[in-house]
Each structure stands twice: as C-alpha cells, then as structure tokens.
Amino acid sequence: MSEKPQKSDVSDYSKTLFLPQTEFPMRAGLPQREPDILKTWNKIGLYERLREASAGRPKFVLHDGPPYANGNIHIGHALNKILKDVVTKSQQMLGFDSNYVPGWDCHGLPIEWKIEEENYRSKGKTKPDFRDSTAMVAFRKECRAYATHWLDVQREEFKRLGIIGDWDHPYATMSYPAEAQIARELMKFAANGTLYRGSKPVMWSVVEKTALAEAEVEYEDYTSDTVWVKFPVTSPAHGAFAGAGVVIWTTTPWTLPGNRAISFSPKIAYGLYKVTDAPADNWAKNGDLLILADAVAEAVFKQARVTAYEKVRDIPAGTL
C-alpha cells in the first residue's frame, strides 16, 4: 500500500514560470487611482514642467473649437476633448512644444435658452421685452453669471478626463479683453477698406425674438412641387428667337414674381427645339419653339408630355 502524499510534496507551479517582477498591483483599481494620478500631476505642476522642458522647440498649436458653457459635459464633449488630447500629447512626445489652451463659447442662443427656461418659463414668467434697454442689460448679466458657473463646472469635469492644458488661464468669448480685441480687429477691417455693408438673409426666431446662426437652424424634410415655366423672349436684341420661350424649372414657385433674370452658362450646349406633337390640353403645344439645354431636352419633353419634337438649330451660349 502506497503512502498518501504529504501537502509539502505538492509543487507550487507558479514558481516554475519565468515571469518579470513588477510593482504594479494585480488590480488596476482605476476609479480609485485616477484621482490620485491627477492630484499628483497637479501637485508637480505637470503642464508648467512640460512648457519648461519644451522651451525653444518648434510649436504645435491645436486651435480647439470651444464648447458652450451651458451644462454638464456629455459623451460628445468627452470624445472631442480626449481625441484632441491624444493629438497634443503625441506631438509633445514627438519633440514639439505642444501646448493646449482650453476655451469656452459664452454667447448665443443655447445659453439664452437655458436662462429663459430656468429663470422664466419654469417660474411662469415671460421673457423680458428687449426694447427696454434696462431689461436687456439685466438679461445679459444673467447669461454672464450662468456661463461663468458652467465654465467652472466643465473645467473640473474636463480635468477629470485627464486632459492636460492651461486650465488656469483659459479663454472665454465673454471676457472683456477678448470682446475688446474683437472690436479692434473689426476696426482694422474698417481702416483698410475691407469692411462693407451688404445684404444677407438672417434666420429669425419668432419665438425667441432673436437672430439664429446658420448652425442653429434645423430643416425639416419637405417634398416640393416641381414647376416648369416658359418665359417668352421679348427683347429686340434677340429677334432671332422671336416667338420662342425659355423653359426653366423650379421647386420654389413662390419666388417667380421676383424673378429678374435667367442664367446661362458658356460651358453648356443649348438648342432651339420645336414641338411637333403634343396633347391638345398640354402647356407645350404643337409649333412651340423652346430654348433648352441639350443635355436635359429629352427629359424635359418627357415631363411635359410632348410626344414628338425636333431640334431646329444649335444656340451658342454667347448669343443668349
């Protein structure tokens, strides 16, 4: 009968593996360790030390579009900032002086909307009448205070993501020096003659009673009616086309009363076409002479229910 092996005879197989020795713990414990890492970075002044170490190197500057200071950060903020942090850190490691200056956009409808929602609508109050200059100044002060609060909140949240930057000296569009610099730059345009007054359509919110930036306008998909319109040629200078009509196509028929011109391109071939067969109740009738771009003539006549047509002659774009 064999003896039962003693516990001391059992081999410790972990000792048979050739593994490196490390001081890293078995568990990362990142939720606990990350705040300590960030605290260490702040204690040693990591950003300032990076600037000192890279003094004199070629600069790599990342111009970061600022977020609105109007609430806690979300996953979009995190994705944006982390990807840019990867860029600036990698460029620093590649030998550049890659500093990052964070900033905030403190103007615009998003902040105004939040103020109206929290300070007025939720309390049953109406939005101030901005025809009263006193009310406008007070409303702006509310917006400034609101943006200041969320700038500080977002700054701490961005730091928590491990983003390295000059957090003590960010830029903000509402800072008075920044606003003064904008005025100075505008005056440069005025002084060198490049500032001019023109016309530009500006979207207006009838609800908010304020102008909208193009990025703030959301369009709803809409299927428009297609309209074909025949403009008769009446100018004596174009007597060669007397009795002919120029066909245009539009999905905005309400603009027709303001139509003042028809555009032609020297890069497009045009022709004079004659309708030879069409239904009696059709808008394009037998014998009609129409000026069309050759490339779309067939499609136009098909849409116009013209069953037969012929090309009378080519029309050089320069003659139109």
Features:
alpha/beta; 7 helices; 33% helix; five-stranded mixed β-sheet
Helix content: 25-40%
**Biggest pleated-sheet summary:** 5 strands, mixed
Portion in strands: 5-15%
Shape: elongated
List the total number of helices.
Answer: 7
Classify the secondary structure makeup into a structural class.
Answer: alpha/beta
Walkthrough of the structure:
The protein is of the alpha/beta class. The chain has 7 helices and 9 strands; from the N terminus they run αααβααβαββββββαβ. Strands 5-6-8-7-9 form a 5-stranded mixed beta sheet, covered by helices on one side. It has a two-stranded parallel ribbon with strand order 1-2. It has a two-stranded antiparallel sheet with strand order 3-4. β3 and β4 form a beta hairpin. 13% of the residues are buried. The model has no long low-confidence stretch (mean pLDDT 87).
